[in-house]
Amino acid sequence: MSNTFGRLLRVTTFGESHGPAIGCVVDGCPPGLELAPEDFERDLQRRATGRSRHTSQRREQDAVEILSGVYEGRTTGTPIALLVRNTDARSKDYDGIADRFRPGHADYTYWQKYGLRDPRGGGRASARETTMRVAAGVIAKKWLSLRHGVLVRGYLAQIGTLVPRECDWASVERNPFFWPDAEQVPELESFMDALRKSGDSVGARISVIASGVPPGWGEPVYGKLDAEIAAAMMSINAAKGVEIGDGFASVMQRGSLHRDEASAQGFLSNHAGGILGGISSGQQVVVSVAFKPTSSLRLPARGVDVRGNEVEVVTTGRHDPCVGVRATPICEAMLALVLMDQALRHRAQCGDVGEVAPRIPG
Ligand code: EPS
Questions:
Q1: For residue range 276-304, what is the model confidence (pLDDT) as tens digits?
Q2: Residue 356 lies in a domain
Q3: pTM
Q4: Whose CA is nearest to atom 6 of ligand 1?
Q5: What is the CATH number of the domain that holds 339?
Q6: What pLDDT is attached to residue 341?
């Protein structure tokens, strides 16, 4: 029922926001990778709620328990099962919407699909599920880094109409937004404070970039690297669009501009976002993801209840005014998982091909 993705690296997540725990099984990780609960801490804290006033104030420890697949600190090649317990769910916040559908939320489509739903915290549709994507992504990031020197990192590239004036990686981890322009952070803080007070929400764009990806990863025709990245990103809650490289801006470009020319010293541009014909070119893989504004709002909205009556819908509880504020580590994780899966698939089919000349520097 599509709770699993990936082919050679297969990730299955399970659990609901207000159940006892959430978890995942990562199957296909090669043996011998050093892995400890502490490896998960940094990325899980980067994604977690309650780390600033600009996100949901739910307080979870988000401590990862490794249940299987690791022996004496190394992966064994068997399924790696990870568990995170839910300790701060407040289900009564959802009493008021148990019989009604939040406009813009999956409440209505889950109801239509399954004939019932778990209204507590959005159940399986909750962004709580992304905790386990990030946990699985930690394994992929670590393997990619150690085995191939690949670095996957992202930043918040737009929030509402605010766009960073400069992109400085050093700033990204020094503010609660993953914003790459340190000078602009006070403006962002004021924007978010006003937004929170208004009770409304806003959309966002995340950019995520993988550097060090060698040429050759990605499987034409139906397993294209860009197709699988797009599918992975679109599976994140609230994602509404994905671009690779110049994405939709390509519509207005001429071929003479868009084609990435090359010299013996390297490629001269990267409009393609590091992927040609569904296969990595050796340039940076550049991905952009659009997130819609949060639909759980305390501002009253017109809607219907489960009996079809017109009702007012008001959502109480601890919601994110902008899901994009916490989405950077989630997008990084999804990109890392797709890349590791494709790396293993490339190794399986083409491992004997080796390095092919000429290799144009990225
Ligand atoms: C979420 C609503 C809130 C957030 C949650 C995502 O959930 P609840 O009302 O159940 O606390 O706190 O985020 C997390 C718990 C998390 O860990 O990301 C939603 O509707 O998606």
A1: 999 999 999 999 999 999 999 999 999 99
A2: no
A3: 0.98
A4: 127
A5: 3.60.150.10
A6: 99
Ligand 1 within 6 A of 128 CB? yes
Measured in Å, residue 339 CA sits from the centre of ligand 1 at: 28
Mean pLDDT of 251-265: 98
Task: Give the residue whose CA is nearest to atom 8 of ligand 1.
Answer: 121
The pLDDT score that the predictor gives to residue 274 is 98
Q: Which of 24, 53, 58 to mutate to test the pocket of ligand 1 (most atoms within 8 A of CB)?
A: 58
Total domain count, the chain: 1
Residue type, 46: R
Nearest atom of ligand 1 to the alpha carbon of 57: 12
Backbone dihedral angles phi then psi of residue 185, each to the nearest 5 degrees: -60, -40
**Is the CB–ligand 1 distance for residue 296 below 6 Å?**
yes
Residue 179 in domain: yes
CA-nearest residue for atom 9, ligand 1, is 121
**In the prediction, which pLDDT does 133 show?**
98
Residue 101 pLDDT class (50, 70, 90 cuts)? very high
C-alpha radius of gyration, the chain, whole number = 21
Beta strand residue intervals within the chain, DSSP E: 4-5, 10-15, 21-27, 65-68, 70-71, 74-75, 80-85, 151-159, 204-211, 239-244, 262-263, 266-267, 275-276, 279-280, 285-291, 301-304, 310-313
Which of 92, 128, 129 has most ligand 1 atoms within 8 Å of CB, for mutation?
128
Does residue 215 sit within a domain? yes
Question: Which atom number of ligand 1 is nearest to the Cα of residue 93?
Answer: 9
d(CA 79, CA 75): 9
**Residue 360: inside a domain:** no
Q: Which residues sit opposite 25 in a β-bridge?
A: 12, 81
Domain interval for residue 175: 4-350
- Over the chain, what is the mean pLDDT? 97
pLDDT at 307: 97
Q: How far are the Cα atoms of 139, 226, 334, 340, 351 from residue 222, in angstroms, in the given order?
A: 25, 10, 19, 17, 20
* Contact between 120 and 91 (Cβ < 8 Å): yes
- Asked whether 294 and 318 are in contact (CB, 8 A), the reply is no
Q: pLDDT tens digits for 183-204?
A: 999 999 999 999 999 999 999 9
Predicted local confidence at residue 222, as pLDDT:
96
